[in-house]
Amino acid sequence: MNEIEKLHKSYQSNWKKYIALRSSKLENLNYSNETEKYIFIIFARVNALCDEIITLANQNKTTSAQIIMRSQLESFIDIRCLIDDPNYIQTMYQDELEQDIKFYKNNTEKHLYNKGLFNLELRNKELIALKAKRNKKQKLDIQGKFIKSGFKDLNYTLYNNLCRHSHGNITALASKSFDNGKIIFSKSSSKIELNFLYSTSINTAIASALDIMDYFKFNDNHKIEFEKLLKKNKEIALYFIE
Fold it and tell me: How many helices (H) and strands (E) does the chain have?
């Protein structure tokens, strides 16, 4: 078994242990209000995206892995903000509202999918209704969200790096689609890249579980098992860095 195979096996083993533990400790929790409902929904999203990143990494199909990881990190930040401030749900509503306003504002009869369906009067009524709900005081940009969550440093480091891949930064393009002077459509991942993808995405998933347990005031004894898996994940990362 070579180093890459060992890396895959080590992380996947730790991930499977986490899934089993998550199932036994967290999947039967119930929510009692809207904030808790969205905390659970976002927690599920963080974990589902991690599972997809792991699947891509295992198949050495990682062109989109950092793009998915960016979404995972954004959702993790949302969990932190919601836990610290239940009113943050209003910020999430405003985010969606702004996207709806942009859609209706730019939606015209010339749009490809509007042929025979567009109604200017209805479009304008919907746009007026949406703008009436707008509350700029509840808006928060991505930098503000990282600051609110207590992870300001991640905005300028990890998140900044992931955005390069999402937006097709020159360096990101070259790292994924260019090798030895040739354009390529599928590039095998290096040990360094795989180590980063596995360790960071799994760390984020486990950290989100610990946040959930803190929010619902789990006994520290219940958290120990999750903390052990987090520690193990970091040990695996350090082993394959050397």
Answer: 11, 2
